[in-house]
Amino acid sequence: MNRSDVIVLGAGLAGLSAARDLAAHGVDVRVLEARHRAGGRVDQTTLPDGRLMQLGGEVIGPSHTAYTQLVAELGLTLVPAFAALPGHDVWMLADGRRVGELPFFDDADRASYERAEAEFRRLVATVDPDDPWSHPDADRLDRLSVGQWLREVGATPNVVRARDIAMLALAAESVERTSLLSDLRKEAVTGEPGFYNYDVWEVSRVAEGSATVALRMAAELGHRVTYGAEVVHVTLSSSGCTVELATGERYTADTVLSTIPAGPLRRIRIDGLSDARRASLHRQRHALTSKVTVAYAESFWAADGLNGTMYSETGMMGGTWVQRDGILSALVPPERQSAFLATAPGRVHDELIDELAAAFGPDARDAQSLIVRRYAVDPYTLGYITSWRPGDVMGVGPLHGTHEPPFYVAGSDQWVCGYMEGAVRTGRAAAAAMLTQ
Length: 437
Ligand SMILES: Cc1cc2nc3c(=O)[nH]c(=O)nc-3n(C[C@H](O)[C@H](O)[C@H](O)COP(=O)(O)OP(=O)(O)OC[C@H]3O[C@@H](n4cnc5c(N)ncnc54)[C@H](O)[C@@H]3O)c2cc1C
Known about the structure:
Blueprint: E1 3-9, H1 13-24, E2 29-32, E3 44-46, E4 52-54, E5 59-60, H2 65-73, E6 78-80, E7 88-93, E8 96-99, H3 107-124, H4 138-143, H5 146-152, H6 157-169, H7 180-188, H8 198-201, E9 204-206, H9 210-221, E10 225-226, E11 231-235, E12 241-245, E13 250-258, H10 262-266, E14 269-271, H11 275-283, E15 285-288, E16 290-295, E17 306-312, E18 319-324, E19 327-332, H12 337-341, H13 345-360, E20 369-373, E21 384-387, H14 392-396, E22 407-409, H15 420-435
Parallel strand pairs: 1-2, 1-13, 2-10, 7-17, 11-14, 13-22
Antiparallel strand pairs: 3-4, 5-9, 6-9, 7-8, 11-12, 12-13, 15-21, 16-19, 16-20, 17-18, 18-19
Bound molecules: flavin-adenine dinucleotide.
Residues 9-15, 32-35, 40-42, 56-60, 229-231, 259-261, 264, 268, 289, 291, 375, 380-381, 384-385, 411-412, 418-423 line the site of flavin-adenine dinucleotide.
């Protein structure tokens, strides 16, 4: 009775997009999802006034073609995201609040930034994002942190500081703990190589809500998705695979596609997998983050000529951006999780509001809603997006993103970095690989 052609583990964007394509080709597919909802790292809630608040992934860039294509197929609409908003950035620096573009830069810093970025761009052009391992200098580039490399090419301390602030606002790891090769690989997929830039990665959002992408697919798949189904054990064999849930219930199929994030995947016992693949999958890790979403009646910061974007060296939040009218998003970067997780929830709320008031003024105290999602410790995420510390690209190795039939893998961890694009791109590619098997 619990038998299908393919079992997909996880009903995030990767699992759902793979299952949708398989079902469209007449494959009998079942999706097993531990949570009682679809979407995984995309989620949303509706405010009493009807505005949707995104509690997970939100924005995409023009090179995110798999996601864009899926959005069009689902009849959803892309609209400009915060990068297009007018106004000034706010900087909460160790030495005080500043407004404007890189306010601690002088002319020498600006020239140094341009030189370092030109050199970064030159290096990006030498990296094949599908095969960074074959780069003649792959080992060295992977062992170097972005921070070390910046200093090697003569970047000023303020350039390193600016890059670090930008990375922490994204809740990525510090430039001192990020592999240069991973960063080169990530920017190589954009077609506009340079340092990570909101204008390249964070340009559009789905007007109907980014979680709606997942919800639409889950609705299409209907009974094929089983919720509250935490997978604990997978047995792989060319004569048939078995998937066992925490409840002891068993499902069988010819093929298994895992879209489980790196942390929770380590807790699943998988028999029949090669040691090399297990080592590669278990080597991956996430940046640990939490997301904060705050709703106001309106975008009050605009009256002060601000665009709602904030960068913080001092707070629990790494920065903010405008999610939509009156709603700010923020991430708590990995290095600030300990202070964040060690603080009582009520106190966290007060301290976040204090940070927002320090950045945007007293109106920031009139929040209608403040929601915190602790993805870092959520048992079914244990992270945020893949983090590549120095040595990790070579450590994970060329098995990354590949399959070992009857075991397939997809999910944003199997792309160059996290991102909704990575989930959809690898999910649909895994389905295509199964269909041509
Ligand atoms: C706070 C936050 C902000 C983000 N912002 C952006 C953004 O602006 N733009 C962008 O492109 N990306 C963003 N991302 C990343 C993006 O949301 C993810 O990369 C993408 O949604 C991951 O999809 P996935 O299907 O690969 O994994 P997931 O969405 O994590 O799906 C995996 C599924 O597996 C399930 N699962 C886990 N363990 C088990 C188990 N044992 N048994 C069964 N099921 C299990 C989970 O419940 C989950 O539903 C953000 C992520 C977070 C957390």
